[in-house]
Write a structure and sequence with these properties.
By secondary structure, this protein is of the alpha/beta class. It folds into two domains: about 180 residues, Rossmann fold, CATH 3.40.50.1980; about 150 residues, Nitrogenase molybdenum iron protein domain (Rossmann fold). The protein is built from twelve helices and eleven strands. It has a four-stranded parallel β-sheet with strand order 2-1-3-4, sandwiched between helices. Helix 9 crosses helix 10. The longest helix is centred in the middle third of the chain and has 26 residues. The protein is globular. The protein starts with 12 loop residues before the first helix and ends with a helix.
Length: about 350
Amino acid sequence: MDQKKVFECPQTVCDALFFQKIVVVSVAAAALAAGGCGGAVDVNQRPTVVATTTIVADLARQIGGDQVEVVSLMGPGIDPHSYRPTPRDADRLARADLVLASGLHLEGKLGELLERMGRRKPVVFVAEAVAGAARLDAAAGIPDPHVWFDLSLWTACIDPTVVALAEQVPEAEEAFTAAGDRYREILLAAHEEVKAAVATIAPQQRVLVTAHDAFRYFGRAYGIEVVGVQGVSTESEAGLADINRLVDLLVERKVPAVFVETSVPDRSVKAICEGAAARGHEVTTGGRLYSDALGESGSGAETLESAIRANVAVIVEALGGAAADSGDAVQPQAAEPVNAPGDIANAP
């Protein structure tokens, strides 16, 4: 389990004390979960699967169905890069029968707690099933963790999830395998639809500018240039040079829209729009994209497939492509013009 703390800031004394408290809580909760009241575990009780993110939780639900109880530590709109674990998280992890994480350093500050839990119970990092040759680098040989944005690549996470669930409920192994096969077909079909939809955008305008650099797998898989204001991790901050470089790109390529994300603040994206407006090129925020988290209940983006479809509908509409005919696609969110030029883009 090679989970280096690459995206963490240097740990302060306060951080160390915080994690000590987390570990104490997790150990106590594990003891209670193991001991209970001295009675045997109800054989009819479904195993509890704790997933770190909404995307991993969706994977577990697609395959596990009603055979397991799936709990997501992080809810909709939560950024996993900067997420700080709580004592409640430690309790949930300690009481879980199985923990599913994305891995490849996505979970950031949660990584240390997952490492400790892995010594006492199954902790599976599903994205580590993606072949090394298929991974993109974030920096200095560290992998970009956002592999789910290539739906064909995310299918590599199905088999390890099937195996992990089957170890919890052996009698349901065939059902898990069949569900995994169905889910693979769904993702691969959606993969082809996304490629076709992005291809309707004019080549010059096939530029996706987003709040942070989470969409590089999406760009490689579906033929669109991707530029993030921040780096792969939201722990980094965009500087003035980054803002001005992106303003130059938008003006030169006449890109009509940029995009904010549901789990990342949009201040840098707004600064870019304001900088372009100051140079006579109006850019809209084309809508909010789902990046590191899925949508809330009722959003129409509660699953990975539906969130990707929602994103594609927004991107294609904002960049001038043809709207998808699929009845499953979520309607694009309205574009939102940004008017006044801002100080940050005009600074010397």
